[in-house]
Amino acid sequence: MYPERIRRTMQYAILLMISVLTGCSTQQLHNQGAAFLEGFVETSVTQHMLTLSDVDQSCQLGSSMGPVFFATHSITDAPPATLSLLYLLSANCSEQQAFEAEFRSLRALQDGRPTEAKDARTAQKRWLKLTAERRNLSFKYALEANNYPYDEASSSCPTFTSDQQEMVFLLGLLTGLQAIISDAGAEMRANVPRNIAAIAARASYCLDDQKWGGSPASIRSAIWVLLPGLNAENQDAWAILDASSKQSLNFGIRIPVALHATMAETSNNLPQLEKSLSYLQQEIQPNPDYSLLDAIALSHITAISDRIWTQAKGERTPFGRLGFLPDHVDEDANDEQLDDLL
């Protein structure tokens, strides 16, 4: 069951859609209803939603409500902050499907079923393409909501009037980076612009790193690992990722740990991968205002761990072993076999 505030919002959305589809109301009523719905969600529901820790429920909310808010945005032309968050959440749903397909492909390959492995890898790429598209939209809407003309190199930082605005901007930069990674896994079929990386790195300086638990610095340092040419001052990206990961444990949102692990896996850096996963051995208290963000970060780290365990042992991370690597890790073997098949 959805929490009461979210359930009520969905009821309002359904009533609004009925009035629009049946034509039983005037255009003025449509505008007022859409504006009320957007305002109610942004001021009340969003803050409540961020305190939840159910990643599956939140991603389903994003998938079901995203089309509704896309329609209301076309009516009100209000800043699309909520729309950005909904696309972020829905991208988690499609990415989970991509993970499941990937794990099926790995197990099928290990069991000597190459046709099934190839089919599952194709399904994975399709889900990654959708994930990249959703994340690209989340990035664009987040920057648009904060009046940040990301296509201009000399863009000045937004004037934030609330922590929620900053949070939407921060998550937009994160999803921009993730969109590039997802698109790479989909053979670039989502056509995510590669200049997003430079934009996100530059825009991350608009946010206070101390205030947001190391997340802004982790975003730009992750980009530097991915694209070293953007690291104009040759800063130690791994050292920054590690420092940000430690900082995030006290802040209670482990976005930097997730980025640390993602970049370590992407660059095949086993020592950094072990270091990033080791932070999961520490008990933390999730930030009560943003429990959902920590839960999403943890789900990303868990997926990385599950991939490693599946490659090595044919099974996901066993209970009680999150944060630990299996005894034998051969990160490239299965990928190379799949590449040969494809």
Automatic annotation (TrEMBL):
PROSITE patterns: PROKAR_LIPOPROTEIN. This is Exported protein.
